[in-house]
């Protein structure tokens, strides 16, 4: 027994290709216009996004350039106004300056100074002043 063959006409052809009905309804110039419009809209959105990203990068770069850094030569003067005598060269490390000096009591110190505003952000006594009393040993309960 053989199976009967079913003839599939144009409706079955359209079911397999859903956009075939739309394409057949539009003329060639109209289809070209729609395609061109979609292409232009896509290109415009890409250009807009690229422009936005470029402005964001420019603003980020401009912010770093506008950030003021105190010159290395001014650091010793700023520290002197706070009572420190710089004894070694001032060295820049990232966003800070490092140097050694003596405070008004004669203690040798290591100073870390913020490069943007010349504030002292770190201080360590390296050597106490000559003749300074040593701290008493800690006495407490065991």
Distance between the termini: 107 Å
Largest sheet entry: 5 strands, antiparallel
Q: Got a strand count? A: 5
* Unreliably modeled segments: none
Q: Whole-number radius of gyration?
A: 39 Å
Mean pLDDT: 77
Task: Please count the helical segments.
Answer: 4
Structural class: alpha+beta
Order of helix and strand elements from N to C terminus: HHHHEEEEE
Into which percentage range does the β-strand content fall? 15-25%
Overall shape: it is elongated
Fraction of residues in helices?
A: 40-55%
Which SSEs are present, and which pair or pack?
Elements: H1 10-16, H2 20-25, H3 28-66, H4 72-81, E1 85-86, E2 91-93, E3 96-102, E4 108-114, E5 120-127
Antiparallel strand pairs: 1-3, 2-3, 3-4, 4-5
Describe this structure in words.
- The protein is an alpha+beta fold.
- It is 44% helix and 19% strand.
- The protein has helices at residues 10-16, 20-25, 28-66, 72-81, and strands at residues 85-86, 91-93, 96-102, 108-114, 120-127.
- Strands 1, 2, 3, 4 and 5 form a five-stranded antiparallel beta sheet that branches.
- Strand 4 and strand 5 form a beta hairpin.
- It starts with 9 loop residues before the first helix and ends in a 15-residue tail after the last strand.
- The model has no long low-confidence stretch (mean pLDDT 77).
């Amino acid at each position: 027994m053989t199976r009967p063959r079913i003839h599939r006409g144009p409706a079955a052809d359209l079911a397999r290709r859903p956009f075939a009905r739309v394409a057949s309804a539009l003329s060639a110039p109209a289809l070209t216009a729609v395609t061109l419009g979609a292409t232009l809209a896509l290109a415009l959105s890409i250009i807009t996004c690229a422009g936005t990203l470029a402005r964001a990068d420019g603003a980020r770069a401009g912010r770093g350039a506008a950030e003021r850094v105190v010159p290395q030569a001014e650091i010793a003067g700023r520290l002197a106004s706070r009572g420190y005598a710089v004894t070694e060269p001032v060295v820049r490390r990232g966003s800070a300056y490092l140097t050694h000096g003596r405070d008004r009591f004669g203690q040798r110190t290591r100073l870390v100074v913020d490069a943007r505003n010349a504030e002292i952000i770190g201080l360590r006594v390296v050597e106490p002043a000559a003749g300074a009393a040593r701290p008493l040993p800690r006495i407490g309960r065991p």
